[in-house]
Amino acid sequence: xxxxxxxxxxxxxxxxxxxxxxxxxxxxxxxxxxxxxxxxxxxxxxxxxxxxxxxxxxxxxxxxxxxxxxxxxxxxxxxxxxxxxxxxxxxxxxxxxxxxxxxxxxxxxxxxxxxxxxxxxxxxxxxxxxxxxxxxxxxxxxxxxxxxxxxxxxxxxxxxxxxxxxxxxxxxxxxxxxxxxxxxxxxxxxxxxxxxxxxxxxxxxxxxxxxxxxxxxxxxxxxxxxxxxxxxxxxxxxxxxxxxxxxxxxxxxxxxxxxxxxxxxxxxxxxxxxxxxxxxxxxxxxxxxxxxxxxxxxxxxxxxxxxxxxxxxxxxxxxxxxxxxxxxxxxxxxxxxxxxxx
Length: 342
Hints:
Distance between the termini: 11 Å
CATH topology of the largest domain: TIM Barrel
CATH superfamily of the largest domain: Luciferase-like domain
Number of domains: 2
Strand order of the largest sheet: 1-2-3-4-7-8-9-11
Order of helices and strands: EHEHEHEHHEEEHEHEHEHEHH
Structural class: alpha/beta
Helix content: 40-55%
Radius of gyration: 20 Å
CATH architecture of the largest domain: Alpha-Beta Barrel
């Protein structure tokens, strides 16, 4: 059985205030819960309006009170920007508010403007991430009793985690983008979230195989291995119209991402020029079903995460329609085997 989830960027749209966008996002969250999606993930971003969620755990807390069964993903907490003890406290609180539905993802970050805004550099993010992760894991994998922590950046004594999380342990996920991250999370035995965008399919497949081999070599149970593939997704009944909307939306999205990543130097780079192919799911339901089968067969993934927000290009109505069509006419084809087995 393939699990289907949704990654929300909460993109800004000129016709709506930030407050209105949050209300629209929560409407989508309620719909995902009703339609049987596995999880909703919220992405953390800062300073550009690329996404309106600077704190994905706070958004998870809001979503917890709007839903009953949907898992809530922090996708992902950018650890260099946070104190690890506060991350652990927030995660425990969200897990309580959701009755044990939190999936906690961690990442290092990648947008230069965000590091500039926090007075940091991309170069130092490796060390900041490593030290923060060490402290977070120290707390959340053993949440009972006081603890001390001591790294070059983070030091403290006699800290005790309250509240106590429902899950023992909370499920951790790793954002796998860099070469090293596939090996890192394989060794830890964590499920991973991949973000292929314009990455060649054969390169992503090689990296996933590195993760799988490292996971097995570290002695983890292969039955618990999960690989999530993040896909830009748009579904309509009319295949040609769906592809047209998708391609225009992607040009808008990648143009915006290109600008906030490179600023004045945008014309000198070609990273975001082409519409993604590896991470593309567009068309009518039949075309999307066929594409999902190709992805599952080729990459051997266990999870598909849809992104249906293209830097404000789509209307809320288009987003909701795509979410419904995907759930009603795509998901059942990949869930029947699992339902029968249960």
